[in-house]
Amino acid sequence: MINSAFTVILLAGQRPGVDPLAEHFGEPFKALIDVAGQPMLAWVASTLAARPDVKRIVILAQQGDALLDHPGTRWLRDEARVTVRDSGASIVEAIAGTLRSMPQAYPFLLTTADNVLLDDAMIDRFKVGADGADIAVALVERKVLEAAYPGNRRTWLPFRGGAYSGANLFWLGSPEALKVLAIWRRVEQQRKKARAVLGAFGIGLSLMIALRMLTLGGAVARVGRRLGLIAKAVLLPYAEACIDVDKPADHAMVEAILRARASQPDPEL
């Protein structure tokens, strides 16, 4: 295990209104949906809390205290490294505010409560790949997922040489990452305006990506140069890294994977 310590930002909020998946399972919050015997938030938080290299876990949610009232997450109240912050109306502003309030806590690992299959191997591989970056994003190549789970449907980002899906893991390695969050906030505010998205990264770069003229690494490097920072895309060789819980079908799949993991013998015994 890599020993360099980091701070975690764990996103556990939801968009305004009723979350369709939470409603489907009869829960007030998506993060509390039960998966294989415990809430999604508990799965992710327990993986992170078990790591000695995690300095602190900051849970961002609109009603964080209510999330920790659940029997399956109440243990987080007694975890000294866990704090809860209000995410408000803008998750981007909440992330940026957390970074500004904790300037000595870099680097940050950002993930989500529905990233239930997150494990140590994924985190360790991502840390190694993100080393030295101001900002990094973890992705899984399409052929990796389809080899393990044929027919599984994800949202794919097409580049020259391959298509990739996000793994809900981000590395915020220095205050330079705030530059990316500022752009993200601008796009968030004008997400229905294509011109705003194009303008955020430059029309030329956007067109090259749209026409698949750039590889994933090339596109990320160009974004970094444009913003004056070091940006990296880290490919993970684990199909499960890009399977989060957004739909009932995802829920069933993740439950099956977790139950299969639980039935495997402990290699240390």
Structural write-up:
GO terms for molecular function: nucleotidyltransferase activity. This is MobA-like NTP transferase domain-containing protein. Pfam families: NTP_transf_3. Keywords: Magnesium, Membrane, Transferase, Transmembrane, Transmembrane helix. The chain is α/β, with parallel strands linked by helices and 269 residues long. Strands 1, 4, 5, 6, 7, 8, 9 and 10 form an 8-stranded mixed beta sheet that branches. It is globular, with a radius of gyration of 18 Å. About 7% of the residues have low confidence. The chain has a single domain, classed as Spore Coat Polysaccharide Biosynthesis Protein SpsA, Chain A (Alpha-Beta Complex). The chain has 11 helices and 10 strands.
Task: Provide a quick synopsis of the model.
The protein has 269 residues and is an alpha/beta fold.
List the keywords.
MobA-like NTP transferase domain-containing protein; magnesium; transmembrane helix; 10 strands; transmembrane; Nucleotide-diphossugar_trans; eight-stranded mixed sheet; two-stranded antiparallel sheet; 269 residues; alpha/beta; 39% helix
Query: Given the C-alpha coordinates, what overall shape results?
Result: globular
Helix residue percentage: 25-40%
Summarize the helix and strand pattern as letters.
Answer: EHEEHEHEHEHEHEEHHHHEH
Oligomer: single chain
The share of residues in extended strands comes to: 15-25%
Question: What's the alpha carbon Rg, rounded to whole Å?
Answer: 18 Å
Per the CATH scheme, the topology name is Spore Coat Polysaccharide Biosynthesis Protein SpsA, Chain A
> Major β-sheet, in short?
8 strands, mixed
CATH superfamily: Spore Coat Polysaccharide Biosynthesis Protein SpsA, Chain A
Distance between the termini: 19 Å
What is the CATH-assigned architecture? Alpha-Beta Complex
